[in-house]
Amino acid sequence: MKLEDLILVSVDDHIIEPPDLFANHIPTKWLDRAPKLVYNPKSKVQAWSWEGGASFAPFLNAVVTLPKEEWGFDPSTLHEIRPAAYDVDLRVRDMDANGILSSMCFPSFPGFSGYFFARAEDKDLAYACLQAYNDWHIDEWCGRHPGRFIPLALPAIWDPELAAQEARRVARKGVTAIAFSEDPPAMGSPSIHSGEWDPFFAACADEGLTVAIHIGSAFSGDNPPFYGKDAPVDVNVTMPCWNSLSCAAHLLTSKVLLKFPDLRIALSEGGTSWIPGFLDRMERHYENQKWTGWDLGKLTPTELFRQHFLACFICDPSGLLLRDRIGIDNIACEVDYPHSDCTWPESPEEIWRHFELAQCSDAEIAKISHENALKWLRFDPFQSIPREQATVGALRDIAKDVDLRTRSKAEYQSDYEQQHGAIA
Amino acid sequence: MKLEDLILVSVDDHIIEPPDLFANHIPTKWLDRAPKLVYNPKSKVQAWSWEGGASFAPFLNAVVTLPKEEWGFDPSTLHEIRPAAYDVDLRVRDMDANGILSSMCFPSFPGFSGYFFARAEDKDLAYACLQAYNDWHIDEWCGRHPGRFIPLALPAIWDPELAAQEARRVARKGVTAIAFSEDPPAMGSPSIHSGEWDPFFAACADEGLTVAIHIGSAFSGDNPPFYGKDAPVDVNVTMPCWNSLSCAAHLLTSKVLLKFPDLRIALSEGGTSWIPGFLDRMERHYENQKWTGWDLGKLTPTELFRQHFLACFICDPSGLLLRDRIGIDNIACEVDYPHSDCTWPESPEEIWRHFELAQCSDAEIAKISHENALKWLRFDPFQSIPREQATVGALRDIAKDVDLRTRSKAEYQSDYEQQHGAIA
Fold first, then answer.
1. Cα separation of A39 and A420, whole Å?
2. ipTM associated with this complex
3. CB-based contact (8 Å) between B281 and chain A?
4. Entry pTM
């Protein structure tokens, strides 16, 4: 196989939401009260605001093509960032330029499991806005370019029964993935051990929805990552990468997977390199510590893990080296566009280098690059796009004029103002 | 090389403290106020008690040779456990039976970084007891069998200046390792970033003391491991295994290692399998996120890690497979006697199996089995014990009569009462 023949599906990218997202999807009675992207001329910052408060991170780390010296936690306005972050037609062009066939996109201002919507006191309003968000995501963001986006719904994270209801609703619209929190108690919700989430997990298992748990999905303005008041920012930026480990430990040792043997979980941006040691540890613990009462019947912890978890990585050469200890059917790849960790526009080159380092076979490459993602997420892009048009080489061929250059925030803002007038 | 020719040094075992430990080492004026191992006839539990309160876990998980159905967090009295847990002469016999040349032993009732002593209001008393503990450990536990025990001192964890003073004192007695906490703020102490611990780190670097940071070294009765009120005990038992990851992230991104280039740190019971992915991540972060200001000069994060950290594992086949991505000079092995995770009496067989799985060369086996440990901990057992008497085969030859059988708590207690009379 050659790099040009790769078919790449990214199971983790991010939408930066455009200002008009609620306009076409929320019942008129709620429209005035829906979140709005508001510019504060004093602080020169935009934020999504409503009666539930302001968003924590509307443009979370959307720094793709900004010069590295302008990176940081967050740009301040939508106009300082690459328009493909929020414009789906441009996004598809950027996917073409990077050879990406299909992408699953997580939200930004709502938080990775929709916590923003939980913060309105009026829960009818909250649910109306959540539904509007999901409908916009499904019908507009994903609907405009068939085969290119794997729809990912948000749950009603404040209410397990309502989350189940929304899961069943979006499933009827053809959605096959729904987000969830890596740590519900950190958001003031019941834990996965409480049994209270069972209606939601039941709905996901019944309806064939993969539960996508992104690192940082328990973070919000109320619950920022915290590793000590004087810890370097490097600790705060790197440590959440291992949140999936603790999340997987909770799920694996819980009753949830035994109650719902069809439940599928994607550990989004969780990486893979920790998994071989995690499984070694869980096997040894299960074998040794019978007194705890953990009983998987005929399964081993590794078998249970492989039945339920899709491990997802942006860049994880050590994980690829030990792919046989993870499960060759349990690994998918990510781009993380437009965040600072994204590999755009050279995702194919980077993953190819790691495939070569790990001496992956063509069959293994096919599984990791797209087959596992499509199987776990029950998504078939080839209904819309013939295979020969789906490769890195074919997609890049139609995107030769995409501008890949680094541009400063000021340049993006100037472009925007020329097109749309001054920001207000 | 054959299994019998291995030389094995364990850099992590545990002492269960005998009742008379303070008797010979504390000034007479403090003797009455020193901690005492007290039996409560009502609860039938022994605990170390003094004016600072009672110990959290005096026999922490000391279950070696107990039948698995009697395992659990803790036996209740010293008499329910294998005497080699607290009797150093018997301990050496158990080391012989397991082919272990030398062992570094962490404390039990004081906590792995000596937090127990911090809890007395009278800090003169606290320091007197800490010194007595260290002197007992150095002179009695380690002193009776030259070459068999690598002395490990405890710091005055409540006071960085005093911790530095104690480090310099024990260094003069020939000690080359001192414990420290994986998370000082969790114990109410300043963080490593505050600069307040610099006098302690300076003393360790100057005096050639390796700082041994054991997983769980921030836990105590006041600060138990906590992963949610309804989490399975399996989560609480397994998750602390990755505490070293966060501890290493803090140290690696701190100013500490740059200020003290000679400082050596052992990540005790931290395992190794997370390290390749951790280093991949830190390299990528360092390369990408220049805005954070993390500046290692001419070093890379991996080079800095390899200069400062000894990674220590009990059982970690995935780590051995990627030893070249960790650093072949940075890995040492552990037995964890007498805890439930210990591999006694088959440590040589287990590690040999993993050496074979990873196809380690003889030179790599020599480094991991003992050379790295002895170099990092500056310990030379061969001054006392000739090499030909130091191998697994030679040690096991002199321990053929050691009783390896499983025995119940009741049997141990009955043996004890026959020898010493009823417990009081």
1. 15
2. 0.96
3. yes
4. 0.97
Dist CA A410 CA A4 (whole Å): 35
Residue type, B10: S
CA distance A339 to A335: 9
pLDDT bracket for residue A55 (50, 70, 90): confident
What does the pLDDT look like over B224-235, one tens digit per residue? 777 888 999 999
CA distance B142 to chain A (A): 30
- Measured between beta carbons, which residues in chain B are less than 8 angstroms from residue A282? 238
End-to-end CA distance of chain B: 51
pLDDT tens per residue, range A391-415: 999 999 999 999 999 999 999 999 9
Q: Which two three-digit tokens encode residue A210? A: 């993969």
The verdict on whether omega for the bond into residue A240 sits within 30 degrees of 0, i.e. cis, is: no
Would the CB atoms of B271 and A281 count as touching at under 8 Å? yes
* φ and ψ at residue A183, rounded to 5 degrees: -155, 75
The interface residues of chain A toward chain B in range 305-364, judged by CB-CB distance below 8 A, are 315-319, 321-322, 325, 340-341
Cβ contact A273–B276 (<8 Å) = yes
pLDDT of residue A405: 96
Tokens linked to A19: 């200002």
How large is the average pLDDT for residues A2-18? 97
pLDDT of residue A299: 97
For residue B64, what is the nearest residue in chain A, using CA coordinates? A288
> What are the backbone angles phi and psi of residue B256, rounded to the nearest 5°?
-60, -50
Per-residue pLDDT at A72: 80
- Nearest-by-CA chain B residue for A231: B193
How far apart are the C-alpha atoms of A126 and A33, rounded to whole Å? 10
A73, A182, A234: which to substitute to probe chain B, counting the most B Cβ within 10 Å?
A234
Q: Which of B242, B273, B281 is opposite residue A280, by nearest beta carbon?
A: B273
Half-sphere exposure of A209 (CA within 13 A, CB side): 32
Instruction: Give the pLDDT confidence of A203-255 residue by residue, as tens digits.
Output: 999 999 999 999 999 877 666 777 888 999 999 999 999 999 999 999 999 99
**Structure tokens belonging to residue A34:** 């829906």
Residue A17 in contact with residue A62, Cβ under 8 Å?
A: no
